[in-house]
Amino acid sequence: MSMSGQALVLGASGGIGGETARQLVEAGWQVRALSRRATSMPVTPGVTWLPGDAMSPDDVRKAAAGCNLILHAVNPPGYRDWHRLVLPMIDASIAAAHAVGATILLPGTIYNYGADAYPILTETSPQHPDTAKGAIRTEMERRLERAADSGVRSIVLRAGDFFGPRPGNNWFSQCLVQPGGPIRRTIHPGRPGIGHQWTYLPDMAATFLRLVAIRDRLSAFTTLHMAGHWDPDGTAMAAAITRVVGRPVRTIHLPWRLLGLAAPFVPLIRNLREMRHLWQIPIRMTNDRLRGVIGDEPHTPLDEAVRRTLTGLGCLPRAQTSQPGWR
């Protein structure tokens, strides 16, 4: 199958959306990005920004006209209004993909799973989520699976906690470090000695591109897991940050009990607390099925991935100016 064409990216201003858009452009794809703020978005090489709303089936269908791919990487900012917005957005993408014959790419999370699936997750693990957000993510994938019966193809690529050189809804840039300045400390959400799984977003985007190249050989609804970076005792990420910064960096543990006082009033904190259990159990995904499909998983060494991440987040000086529009 040809490794070029037209792709619509929903969520191109975010972490995985922006990184996948960049790599699609480098691979020769024509990329469109839908945004309500399209006229104010920075010039992005190879990307055409289109005004529209991911909640609107008409906007998504029009933007997807002639596209081979739809990357559904859009989420309500700050975890707000998930119950009201998330499912209509995936429905709009499914309707557009059906209309134009595009394949949907969905970045997946471990929210779908509950205690009966821990601690080792495979593609066949039961999905009985313990949280409202997990139930919504599970329903998103159910709708994609049902859409396969009507000819809509989709690939769900599940990964650990995201980190990368673009800001987004992730623990690394919203908790572990403070973007926009030198690193003074790291705030760790986990319990001492508990392992945690991380995924470097450029590696995830590269994995998506490999899967896109062979999508005609995959099932109509395909789910695959990445291994990413496994932190065996919860200290490896903080240690990498210290090595990259080049001086001692103090690590403190997130004061979950104090956050509980603010949770009723701050939606972001309330939603972070809902995911607290993911830091209290060493939950890990295996990538055996993925390796059977594409071979070795794209994998940037941890220190290099952290260096690029901190540079992109403005915590380290840039060695050189990046291309306009790409951060």
Automatic annotation (TrEMBL):
One of its GO terms (cellular component) is cytoplasm. GO terms for molecular function: aldehyde dehydrogenase (NAD+) activity. Residues 11-102 form the NAD(P)-binding domain. InterPro entries: NAD(P)-bd_dom, NAD(P)-bd_dom_sf, NAD(P)-dependent_oxidoreduct. PANTHER family: NAD(P)-BINDING DOMAIN-CONTAINING PROTEIN-RELATED, PROTEIN YEEZ. This is NAD(P)-binding domain-containing protein. It comes from Tistrella mobilis (strain KA081020-065).
